[in-house]
Amino acid sequence: MAFTMHSHSGQFCPGHAKDQLEDIILHAIKVGYKTIGLTEHMPRTALSDLYPEELLPSPEKSLAALAPRHEAYLAEAARLQTKYASQIHVLVGFEGEWIRPAYASLIRSLAAHPAVDYFVGSLHHARGVPIDFDAAMYAQAVAACGGTEEALWAVYLDEQFAMLREVRPRVVGHFDLPRLFSRCIGRSAAGGGDGNAGESKKIKSLKEWKGVWERVVRNLEFVMGYEGWLECNTSGLRKGLDEAYPSREIAEEWVRMGGRFTFSDDSHGTAQVATNYHRGLDYLEGLGVRELWALERRPGTGGEGRKAEVVERSVTIDEFRASLRLEE
């Protein structure tokens, strides 16, 4: 019973992703998904939060388009949910942003919409600077956090902790995203920039940074406390990392705690649906994980301005593999 709990389309993330939302759902059916979680990015509220690709031709127009686009997304997702109900279970969600604490109220408001089944709690920034856009911006984030990657990780994890406390997402997205452009840990072909991202001392484990590792454990324990899930997100593999998110040492700690994993491709177009899924499943099996968790809308609930009842469902990795139809 293959699935993803985290996906995007070019229709509602223009410039950031590709393809129409309906085409992505059709491709998901083709590769054997039984469930797809739609999680377009939530709207942001400040010009300073726009990415470089959104500044032209007019940052004001780009910002003004975000909220109406989100409403259009929810309407289209609901239409497709009904249209393809006999072929795939469609969950409607969004990916949260935590650029600053003020976003807590917006996340809660968006999550209360009757069409929304869940949301992914993610951070893409540290001190308001994007950390996964490119190596140059990652270097700016390092500088904003004090000039070292150790400091950036501490800031990122503290901001993540604030997000977890305020909105308690069922799915915690790409837990250790700073790995992507790190020059110190966890990077292979993903990038790393021009050497301006602070110190370049290599470390083998986040545990070498005592304060950072203490924050990792703190955050994991908090997620355990409210019964949230970490996603095993395979997008890091297609971006050149050696392991999916989260890294092995974090995943091992999560398994030790008894934590649950969900599974995501974090696709940004049809070409990325289920990318590296077999590698991701192998990775989890190597950690001793035997089942994954997803959400399911309870039939006959919701409608007329009421939310559908959403329940948890476990899927064994063997069942997950059996439904995939990939040419890998």
Q: What number is the mean pLDDT?
A: 94
Rg: 19 Å
CATH-defined topology: TIM Barrel
Portion in beta strands: 15-25%
Shape: globular
Oligomer: single chain
Query: Structural class of the helices, strands and pairings?
Result: alpha/beta
The CATH homologous superfamily is named Metal-dependent hydrolases
Q: Termini separation (Å)?
A: 18 Å
Count helical runs.
Answer: 10
Q: Which consecutive residue ranges, at least 5 long each, have pLDDT under 50?
A: 188-198
Specify the biggest β-sheet. Answer: 7 strands, parallel
Strand order of the largest sheet: 1-2-3-4-7-8-9
How many structural domains in the coordinates? 1
Indicate the CATH architecture: Alpha-Beta Barrel
